[in-house]
């Protein structure tokens, strides 16, 4: 729900309400149901609203509580807001709305920045304290909701999207060479705090940032699952069957929590294990007439473009109101260009286009959906996890890089121009530093910790948020319920790796789902026209990489680009992604953002 923005100045000047207004207007798609601005001296806040909880104007933002001396903007949902409201009422607080935003404001007044530890949900927020001039920014544990910041000598601005900050103006749009190295090496993941632009940074997940009136900044990371067997003593000694039941019980709670809304909630049903489990558990809860949605594309390059056989099977089993969305070729190219425009950062996965088109259709029926993202990172469902089983901890980084990185550091010398190279293997160093940190019992535990806190946040989670919110659709991800993630982190690795990955989850699903779904080959949102670039898609990429803007920017070695364009389907990254699409998408994004 929603998009937020704001500015705090440290130079004695009043906040630029015009810039905050431009940032807010740039997020109209995220919040089509209302907008608001507020300012007081050096601080200003902006908000675009998507009405999900408390549909009245009492829940409008920015929300100002004069009695408490607080003003706030909030993006997300606190699934336990009703319980927190009752607790706060018991402490003497009075409420004028039934919104979770007001609960956040009063929780902040009662517990200060530590309130985040009491929140169950997805959130990014900014709270201004009138009497001290202090600004507090917070982001949820798994980074489901975004927060971008841009700081200069005299001010700090923040927003839910990077393009919103660009709309505010005066952003350093130079290419961050370290971020570029990550993009080309670390499977297109650019870890927080960096973005591809030098002047824009991201608030890391599970972080509260306190910004004093004089500009002093303090960050506190408040959550990180340790990925050790001793982390949850109450689960010590569980049998595989008991682990299966514990996972199922925790997932039940996570799915139930995400039905909290004053509008209907649907499900994005790919037909894979994860989304099918959500449908099954909602049916178990007694949800009748549940709206489910699946998407498909024409085949290309000998590759099927839909998984309707599986989604149909699940929809029929649980009697959902199912919507099959088949996208013809004529819609795909315009949608691709719109999807690039909706990206806060360059995102290579062809899932982006699928999610963008799916969101467009789904938003005509519901405002909120549950989605299965996160299960593969949390329960070890990807292909690079089995090779880490039994690997000595000191070899974890090398094994992970060999399985996951798009290419080695040395290969960049023939891909990027000299001005955009860095001397050090910054991506390799980043991974080695993370994997060597204390905690995590095994090499696989350490990699799952890294993927959960970094890759998950800056690839699938960001992708889902950007594409769904482009149509004012809120996506909720029960597999990223922080208590479920904590449980999965403590689960023995061999139980997660069983049955080709996600073993404990597959075992938990067998009493609910048909065997054809549980034991099917791993799937995804297929968009064959991007995996196998040809025709108008190839021309779009060619124009982006050979046009005036690309030549002037000079990111990529011309010989390398020519080689990719001459054989657009031959060059693949380690995990099989199209190498031409990776470089073409980056240039397309930069041009779309006017950089």
From TrEMBL:
Keywords: Amino-acid biosynthesis, Asparagine biosynthesis, ATP-binding, Glutamine amidotransferase, Nucleotide-binding
Domain Glutamine amidotransferase type-2 intervals: 2-214
Pathway, per record: Amino-acid biosynthesis; L-asparagine biosynthesis; L-asparagine from L-aspartate (L-Gln route): step 1/1
One Pfam family in the UniProt entry: GATase_7
SUPFAM superfamilies: Adenine nucleotide alpha hydrolases-like (SSF52402), N-terminal nucleophile aminohydrolases (Ntn hydrolases) (SSF56235)
Alphabetized InterPro entries for the sequence: Asn_synth_AEB (IPR006426), Asn_synthase (IPR001962), ASN_synthetase/amidase (IPR051786), AsnB_N (IPR033738), Asparagine_synth (IPR017535), GATase_2_dom (IPR017932), Ntn_hydrolases_N (IPR029055), Rossmann-like_a/b/a_fold (IPR014729)
Catalytic reactions of this protein: L-aspartate + L-glutamine + ATP + H2O = L-asparagine + L-glutamate + AMP + diphosphate + H(+)
Entries under CDD domains matching the protein: Asn_synthase_B_C (cd01991), AsnB (cd00712)
Domain of life, source organism: Bacteria
Enzyme class: ligase
Entry's family note: Belongs to the asparagine synthetase family.
NCBIfam families per UniProt: asn_synth_AEB, trio_amidotrans
Name of the molecule in the record: asparagine synthase (glutamine-hydrolyzing)
Annotated source species: Streptosporangium fragile
């Amino acid at each position: 729900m929603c998009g937020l923005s704001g500015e705090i100045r440290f130079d004695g000047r009043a906040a630029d309400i015009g810039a905050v207004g431009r940032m807010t207007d740039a997020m109209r798609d995220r919040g089509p149901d209302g907008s608001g601005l507020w300012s007081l001296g050096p601080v200003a806040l902006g908000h675009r609203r998507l009405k999900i909880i408390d549909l009245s104007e009492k829940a409008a933002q920015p929300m100002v509580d004069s009695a408490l001396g607080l003003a706030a903007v909030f993006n997300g949902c606190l699934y336990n807001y009703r319980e927190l409201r009752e607790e706060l009422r018991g402490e003497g607080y009075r409420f004028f709305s039934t919104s979770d935003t007001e609960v956040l404001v009063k929780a902040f007044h009662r517990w200060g920045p530590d309130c985040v530890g009491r929140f169950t949900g997805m959130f990014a927020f900014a709270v201004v304290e009138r009497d001290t001039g202090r600004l507090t920014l917070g982001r949820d544990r798994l980074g489901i909701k975004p927060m971008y910041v841009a700081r200069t000598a005299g001010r700090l601005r923040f927003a839910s999207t990077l393009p919103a900050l660009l709309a505010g103006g005066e952003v350093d749009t130079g290419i961050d060479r370290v971020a570029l190295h990550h993009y080309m090496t670390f499977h297109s993941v650019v870890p927080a705090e960096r973005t591809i632009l030098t002047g824009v940074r991201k608030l890391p997940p599970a972080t509260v940032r306190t910004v004093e009136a004089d500009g002093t900044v303090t960050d506190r990371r408040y959550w990180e699952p340790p990925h050790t067997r001793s982390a949850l003593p109450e689960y010590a000694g569980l049998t595989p069957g008991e682990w299966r039941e514990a996972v199922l019980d925790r997932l039940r709670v996570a799915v139930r929590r995400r039905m909290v809304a004053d509008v209907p909630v649907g499900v994005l049903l790919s037909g894979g294990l994860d989304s099918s489990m959500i449908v099954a558990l909602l049916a178990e809860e007694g949800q009748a007439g549940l709206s489910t949605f699946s998407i498909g594309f024409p085949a290309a390059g000998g590759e099927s473009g839909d998984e309707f056989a599986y989604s149909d099977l699940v929809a029929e089993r649980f009697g959902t109101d199912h919507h099959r969305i088949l996208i013809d070729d004529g819609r795909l190219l315009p949608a691709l260009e719109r999807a690039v425009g909706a990206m806060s950062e360059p995102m290579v996965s062809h899932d982006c286009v699928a999610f963008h088109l799916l969101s467009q259709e789904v938003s005509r029926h519901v405002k909120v959906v549950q989605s299965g993202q996160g299960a593969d990172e949390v329960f070890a469902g990807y292909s690079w996890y089995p090779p880490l089983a039994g690997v000595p901890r000191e070899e974890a980084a090398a094994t992970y890089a060999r399985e996951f990185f798009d290419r080695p550091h040395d290969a960049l010398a023939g891909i990027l121009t000299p001005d955009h190279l860095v001397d050090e293997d910054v991506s390799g160093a980043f991974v080695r530093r993370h994997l060597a940190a204390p905690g995590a019992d095994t090499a696989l535990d350490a990699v799952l910790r890294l993927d959960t806190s970094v890759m998950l946040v800056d690839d699938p989670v960001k992708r889902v948020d950007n594409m769904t919110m482009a149509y004012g659709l809120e996506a909720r991800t029960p597999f990223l319920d922080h208590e479920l993630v904590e449980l999965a982190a403590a689960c023995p690795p061999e139980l997660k790796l069983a049955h080709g990955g996600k073993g404990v989850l597959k075992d938990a699903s067998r009493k609910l789902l048909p065997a054809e779904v549980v034991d099917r080959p791993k799937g995804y949102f297929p968009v064959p026209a991007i995996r196998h670039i040809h025709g108008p898609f190839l021309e779009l990429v060619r124009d982006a990489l050979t046009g005036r803007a690309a030549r002037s920017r000079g990111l990529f070695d011309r010989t390398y680009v020519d080689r990719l364009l001459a054989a657009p389907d031959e060059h693949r990254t380690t995990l099989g992604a199209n190498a031409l699409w990776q470089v073409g998408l980056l240039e397309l994004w930069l041009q779309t953002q006017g950089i």
